[in-house]
Amino acid sequence: MAGYIVEDTKKITTQKVLQMKKDGKKIAMLTCYDYTTAQIVDQAGVDIVLVGDSASNVMAGNATTLPITIDQMIYHARSVARGVKRAMVVCDMPFGTYQVSREDGIRNAVRMMAESGVDALKLEGGEEIIDTVRGIINAGIPVVGHLGLTPQSIYKFGGYGVRAKEDAEAEKLIRDARLLEEAGCFAIVLEKIPAGLSKKVCRNLTIPVIGIGAGSADGQVLVIQDMLGMNVSFKPKFLRQYAQLNDVMTDAIGQYVTDVKSGDFPNEEESY
């Protein structure tokens, strides 16, 4: 198998992620929600595995990320953490677990780290949650920030369109990014913002910026079901599909059904 390069097989840490930015090395991040896929993703050389609250959409079929619970996120995160050896594993804190109060956020963050076995947590928002971010980091938990299109605030935004196109929102995003860095975040995800703004944030920060629909950055993240072509109905401009697994899986399952119904499977060699 070829097409990827893993120079260092040692565990990815926050310090390694920060060093990658200093060295100008791009960071490859993918979502994952189960043990079997986590093993494959890790072996393929991904640097950071994100147990995203997008599990609410792609695993549970919800229209938004809001319904997924902390117990469900811990279940997915624990499954992924068991399958990963090299990559850093980051888990989203789900909606409602850190927005109510600083104390609530710290308590839930400590629980998620203790019960899941992941390496870090990701939170959506800037100035509004900065005290909570500081508290979680002070508790010894590494944090990744998330700005731009923050899906947990989708009802406030009123849709999944590009964010920070206007000057006021762009300036706030830059301020929020600086606040997150000052608070101690070791990386920030920027989602669905103009490419020029993303480049500006990258230049202004010493921590890496990982983009999704945000043009070129210090790294990139995609939802694995999207980039493997399993979710055929979702085709945004920023998505590059690296396979067409929907077709592959449908053909394979269809052949299995045919073989079972015709009596071809199992044959004598496949029987004890």
Q: Which word captures the global form?
A: globular
Q: Count every beta strand, where a strand is a DSSP E run of 2 or more residues.
A: 8
Low-pLDDT stretches: none
For this structure, the CATH topology of the largest domain is TIM Barrel
The CATH architecture classification of the largest domain is Alpha-Beta Barrel
Q: Give the total of domains.
A: 2
Strand order, main sheet: write it out: 1-2-3-4-5-6-7-8
Q: Major sheet: size, sense and barrel closure?
A: 8 strands, parallel, barrel
What do the pLDDT scores average to? Answer: 96
Instruction: Classify the helix fraction into a percent range.
Output: 40-55%
What count of helical segments does DSSP give? Answer: 11
Intertermini distance:
34 Å
Order of helices and strands: HEHEHHEHEHEHHEHEEHH
Full CATH superfamily name of the largest domain: Phosphoenolpyruvate-binding domains
Strand-residue proportion: 5-15%
Which structural class fits the helix and strand makeup? alpha/beta
- Provide the CATH top-level class of the largest domain: Alpha Beta
Compute the gyration radius: what is it? 20 Å
Please describe what this structure looks like.
- It is a single chain.
- With 272 residues, this protein is an alpha/beta fold.
- It folds into 2 domains: 228 residues, Phosphoenolpyruvate-binding domains (TIM Barrel, Alpha-Beta Barrel); 28 residues.
- The chain is 42% helix and 13% strand.
- The protein contains 11 helices and 8 strands.
- An 8-stranded parallel beta barrel has the order 1-2-3-4-5-6-7-8, surrounded by 7 helices.
- α6 links the parallel β4 and β5.
- α4 packs parallel to α5 and α8 runs parallel beside α9.
- The longest helix has 18 residues.
- The radius of gyration is 20 Å and the shape is globular.
